[in-house]
Amino acid sequence: MISTKNLNKTNKTNEMAITPEERKTKVNALREEHEDYFQTNGLINALYIPKMAYRPTGKDELYVSFFPSEFEKNEDIYTEFVSIGYDTEDPKRTLYLHKHNPHWKEEYELIESSTGFIRHIIPVNELKIINDVTSRGKLIHDFANPDIPDPDDKETPGLVDALVEINKTLKTIQLTLNSILNKNYK
Fold first, then answer.
1. Does 119 or 154 have the greater pLDDT score?
2. What is the dihedral of CA 37, 41, 46, 51, to 10 degrees?
3. What kind and span of H or E run contains 17?
4. From 31's CA, which of 20, 102, 155, 166 has a CA 20 to 30 Å away?
């Protein structure tokens, strides 16, 4: 006889499961948010795999997991955080990048789920933030490279002034080029 506790657990598991067709539809819908970034940066066929961020047993920080078959594609992986049902869990829809690591087999911890699936886990802090809905079109600070100043940091002396000067120079170049082009077409 099946206990009510196990029956409820089975029903909840079945409610969370989605078909491969539903997953594909949801992933395509999620990707649409980031398609402008991919198109603008020439990443037409970017490997986009939304993942669940979670805290594995015995760990203190959040991780994402990837199947060996996903790493075997030897490509950078773009991701965002979703639920087990592929619903977004981040209202800012942050897009992250995991740069391809040719040493993934040796460097990333291998785990096996209770259902027998084998995956490699990566700490979320190793992902690079690409952009989110509040910063589309802006430069995102790369926390992995602290030497690059954050242009939104009001404490960075002279940065705003330098950016204003760069903008003026670029406008002057644009006007000069337009003038030359107009002369050539007359």
1. 119
2. -40
3. none
4. 102
How would you class 136 by CB atoms within 10 Å of its CB: exposed for 0-12, middle for 13-18, buried for 19 or more?
middle
Q: Around 30, how many Cα atoms within 13 Å sit in the side-chain half-sphere?
A: 27
| 157 or 38, greater pLDDT | 38
Q: What span, in angstroms and rounded, lies between the C-alpha atoms of 96 and 131?
A: 7
Q: What is the rounded CA–CA span in Å between residue 110 and residue 65? A: 9
How many C-beta atoms surround the C-beta of residue 131 within 10 A?
19
| CA gap 145, 39 in Å, rounded | 25
Task: Tell me how far the alpha carbon of residue 179 is from its chain's centroid.
Answer: 42
Classify the C-alpha dihedral 130-83-50-136 as positive or negative: negative
Instruction: Compute the distance between CA of residue 48 and CA of residue 27 in angstroms, rounded to an integer.
Output: 8
Is the confidence at residue 2, as pLDDT, over 50? no
HEC readout, 99-138: CCCCCHHHHCEEEECCCCCEEEEEEHHHCEEEECCCCCCC
The pLDDT score that the predictor gives to residue 159 is 66
3 vs 141, more confident:
141
Give the chain's mean pLDDT. 81
